[in-house]
Design goal:
Blueprint: H1 2-16, E1 22-24, E2 30-32, H2 50-80, H3 84-89, H4 91-109, H5 124-134, H6 137-150, E3 155-162, E4 167-174, E5 186-193, H7 200-203, H8 207-213, H9 220-230
Antiparallel strand pairs: 1-2, 3-4, 3-5
Length: 232
């Protein structure tokens, strides 16, 4: 019973942090579903093409959701059979696909059309915190863009609130590792996907161009809301 509770809790923790839509499973197991976007696929053009957004959302994010649910079902079966080896073996699939679901669920909220405030600089508490921790807003943008461009392989670059020290930090994570893998006190305010599938159709292999243009559709209002909720 202790093993069942421990592994199930660990498996679901990634998904629960992103407030995903959860649906009931016929076997009593809760599963996750692809969240709707709050804007049309073409609404972020020209910064991000509608074709990229549709493939990214319908194909890539959906694949993470599907494989996450599959891994959770296999974990459920393994725990029911008392197969500890199988349960442990599934942790990498749960981390990768669950992380992909969590990260993308945040990413969609971090973007918004220019007509709805995309690219407008943050003000209030978050604006003040950015100036305090990085000097200027422009310095923060330069730091995130540089670290995102320099990240080897696939991954994410994040602006986070470190609740332990009450400061803003920039972090990178590899592959689909969620930010929590860098520290339990880190709260994601802004995450930028630097996998090639996020930009290759439009920007080819020039990741810096993608990172330059994505700031035009960043939803700082959402980041500010999270910061004000989570900061002391």
């Amino acid at each position: 019973m202790a093993l069942r509770a421990l592994v199930a809790s660990k498996a679901l923790r990634l998904g629960l942090q992103s407030e995903p839509r959860i649906r009931a499973h016929s076997r009593g197991l809760q599963t996750f579903s692809l969240p709707d976007l709050p804007y049309d696929y073409g609404a972020l053009e020209p910064a991000i093409s509608g074709e990229i957004m549709q493939i990214h959302h319908q194909k890539h994010h959906q694949a993470y959701v599907t494989n996450y649910n599959k891994a959770l079902e296999q974990l459920h079966d393994a725990i029911g059979k008392g197969d500890a080896a199988a349960a442990v073996k599934l942790q990498s699939a749960i981390k990768f696909n669950g992380g992909g679901h969590v990260n993308h669920s945040i990413f969609w909220k971090n973007l918004t059309p220019v007509s709805q405030g995309g690219g407008e600089h943050p003000h209030g508490k978050l604006g003040w915190a950015i100036d305090t921790n990085f000097g200027t807003f422009e310095a923060l943008v330069q730091k995130i863009s540089a670290e995102g461009a320099a990240l080897q392989g696939s991954g994410w670059v994040w602006l986070a609130l470190d609740k332990e020290f009450n400061k803003l930090v920039v972090e990178t994570t590899a592959n689909q590792d969620p930010l929590v893998t860098k520290g339990a006190s880190l709260v994601p305010l802004l995450g930028i996907d630097v996998w090639e599938h996020a930009y290759y159709l439009q920007y080819k292999n020039v990741r810096p161009d993608y990172l330059k243009n994505i700031w035009k559709v960043i939803n700082w209002k959402y980041a500010s809301e999270v910061y004000e909720k989570e900061s002391p």
